[in-house]
Structures are given as C-alpha cells and as structure tokens.
Design brief:
Layout: H1 2-39, E1 55-57, E2 60-61, E3 70-76, E4 79-84, E5 89-95, E6 101-107, E7 118-120, E8 130-135, E9 140-146, E10 155-162, E11 172-176, E12 179-183, E13 191-195, E14 202-204, H2 217-222, E15 226-231, E16 236-241, E17 246-251, E18 256-261, E19 270-271, E20 274-275, E21 283-288, E22 292-297, E23 314-319, E24 324-330, E25 336-340, E26 345-351, E27 357-363
Parallel strand pairs: 1-24
Antiparallel strand pairs: 2-27, 3-4, 4-5, 5-6, 7-8, 8-9, 9-10, 11-12, 12-13, 13-14, 15-16, 16-17, 17-18, 19-20, 21-22, 22-23, 23-24, 25-26, 26-27
Length: 370
C-alpha cells in the first residue's frame, strides 16, 4: 500500500510538472501569436477603379436666399428646408421650384416644435411629406409633416422619439424601417444600430484596414471619424472615412459587403502622437439618392480653414454596388449637397470670401448618367 501511495504521489508530481510545462508552452505560443498579430499591418483594400473627372458642372448662385449659419439642408414634398443655428427660429422653408420663402419655425426651446441643435435624418424619400429631425442637445428625434398647399399649416408636429444616452452626441443619423443608424466619433465602432422600439445599441466594429493608435488615444479617436449614407429600398449603408480614402458597403445587420480605396492614397500623418497639419482630408460630405452615392471630395488639410483654400470641389458618384460611375469637376467649393429629383437639379452650399454660406444650383438629371 505504501508503494502504491508513493507511486500515486510520484505520478501526481509528474502530472503537475507536465501541466505547468504545458501552460508555459501555451502561454509562450499565445504571446508569440499576439506579438505577430500586433505587428501585422492593416489589411489592404482593393482599389475602386477611378476615371478622370472630365465633365464639369457649373453652379449658379441663388440670390434670393440670404443665409446665416447654415449647416444642413434637405428636400421634402416640394420644399427646400434649411437649418440655421444663428437665428431665433432654426428651420426655414422655401418653395422648391423658385426658392420663394414660405415660412420659418422652430424656436430655441424644449417644446414639441422647438429645437436647439437640429440635424436632418438621412434615408427619407425627397417626395415624402414626413420630415425627420434629430436634435443632439434635446436627445430626441422629431417627426413633422409638410403640407406645401397651405402656408399656415405648412409644417406641423406629429411625434417625437427619445434617443438613448449612449448615442445622443451623434450628428450623423439615418433611418431604415424601424432602426436608427449613425456615427458618433466616439471610437466605439464604425457606426451604431439602434432599433427604435428598444434601448439596445449595437456597434459595428472598425474594419481591419483601419489601424489602431493605442499609444495616442486622442489620435485614435480622431482618425476613425467617418460618415454614413443609406438606401432604405436596398437596405444598404455606405460609410466613408475622413482620414483615409476608404469606402465600405454594409447591409442593415452591420455585415460588410465590400470595401475599397478611391483615388490617391490618403492616410493620417502622425508626429509626436499628434495628427500633423499636412494630413489630407478625404471628403467633405457623403449624400445619396435611391440610385447613386455622391461623395464631395476634399482638397483640404487637417485644421485648415476653408477660407484659406477655395479650390473648386469634385464630386465622385458611385452606384449602390459601390462601383465608381463618374467624377464631376465644379466651379465652386462645396460643403453640402442635395439632389432635387423633382426639377432635375443639384443644390449645394458654398461660402463667399467672408465665409458666409450661399446656395447654388446646377442642372442635373440622374436618368442621363451613363
């Protein structure tokens, strides 16, 4: 019995040593794997075939509209709606065909028809009579109905939806069916998915082609900035990176369908754990219709004032398979764009020499795109 007990003790000791050795081996193996993975460069993306910008779109100023601190605009039910920060009333409505002023509304406050920091939600059809506005300060999405046949009841409040605290800082939101999608510049993910009837918020992870700057948290947060546009009919989402010339196509589940780089390589230059001012910005705005995606390409650098570089913008156009269709030259700097499919025009916001916003238009018919 003593020999048997001794044998068991020896076996236990050998087994313990064996397990320890195995743990050390596994740990060493995992460390080496993680080290190798950490040294792997971000995965490269295929290049989206690009054609030279041969066609020029000439824009004409709309002199009848005076703008102040305009940052956003949309088209709904034969009305052009412009948001403004500086005025007592935040929303201005114009007749779409001739830009005649109709009405202003939305005083600063917390009431059903009041605003503080309004943005138009993406995704609704321009012919729709519903106007969806998200207020980042009030953390509410408000739905209005537009009736262009009556000035008195031109716009009236219908309902409002509370937004979870996790995403209230978003200024880039869209809606597909009963779900909100948007970006937040928080570093939590490429974009969020929020089913309206729940408090749940899911974050879509950044793709492997976007590197991490863990040693510089502020840089890591900035270089991952991106913006989205959506197609509710096709249930697709496209995101564009601000500091990289990269585009990604997703479905509504947050699964990436396609990724690619467009144009000459753009990537942030990091010096002393800060973004260098020589870093180029990829785009100014992304916008879409049910047929095409419009990307206003930037010719600006990080922290550069728009007024110091008034180069005319180029607009790259893609289909909803994210294939490049054409790139247009223009005669002005563009910071916001909408497509008027009713009167076949492209409407854009630009600045004058004193940095005052101005509205421009150009004839544009999507049905004639080759």
């Amino acid at each position: 019995m003593m020999k048997q007990g001794l044998c068991i003790s020896i076996l236990r000791a050998r087994l313990t040593n064996y397990i320890k050795e195995m743990k050390h081996s596994i740990s060493a193996y995992l460390i080496s794997v993680f080290f190798i993975m950490g040294c792997i460069s971000p995965q490269p993306l295929p290049q989206i075939v690009e054609t030279e910008a041969n066609d020029t779109l000439t824009f004409h100023k709309v002199d009848s509209i005076e703008l102040w601190c305009t940052h956003d605009m949309t088209i709904r039910n034969h009305c052009l709606v412009i948001a403004d920060y500086c005025q007592k009333e935040k929303l201005y409505f114009y007749r779409l065909n001739d830009f005649q002023f109709l009405k202003s509304t939305g005083r600063a406050g917390k009431g059903p028809q009041d605003f503080k920091f309004p943005f138009f939600l993406k995704g609704a059809n321009v012919a729709s009579d519903e106007l969806l506005i998200y207020d980042a300060e009030l953390a509410k999405c408000k739905t209005f109905r537009i009736n262009p046949t009556s000035t008195d009841s031109l716009v009236y409040w219908m309902k409002e939806t509370k937004i979870p605290a996790e995403i209230i800082a978003s200024t880039d939101m869209a809606q597909i069916k009963n779900t909100f999608y948007g970006t937040q510049d928080s570093g939590k993910g490429m974009f969020f998915i929020h089913p309206i009837e729940s408090d749940r918020v899911e974050w879509v992870p950044y793709p492997p082609s976007i590197p991490n700057y863990e040693e510089a948290p502020e840089v890591n947060l900035s270089v991952k900035q991106n913006r989205i546009t959506v197609n509710p009919q096709k249930e697709r989402i496209v995101t564009a990176m601000k500091f990289y010339n990269q585009l990604f196509l997703y479905n509504t589940k947050g699964e990436v369908l396609k990724g690619g780089t467009f144009g000459k390589e753009i990537a942030p230059k990091i010096v002393n754990n800060q973004i260098d001012t020589s870093t180029k910005i990829f785009f100014t705005q992304i916008y879409s219709t049910d047929k095409y995606i419009y990307l206003v390409l930037s010719d600006m650098h990080y922290r550069e004032k728009a007024s110091s570089n008034w180069q005319p913008s180029q607009v790259a156009i893609f289909d909803w398979d994210m294939n490049h269709v054409l790139t247009l030259k223009t005669n002005i700097y563009i910071y916001s764009i909408v497509i008027d499919s009713v009167f076949n025009r492209m409407l854009v916001l630009s600045y004058d020499k004193e940095e005052n916003p101005e509205l421009y238009y150009s004839n544009w018919d999507e049905t004639l795109i080759p």
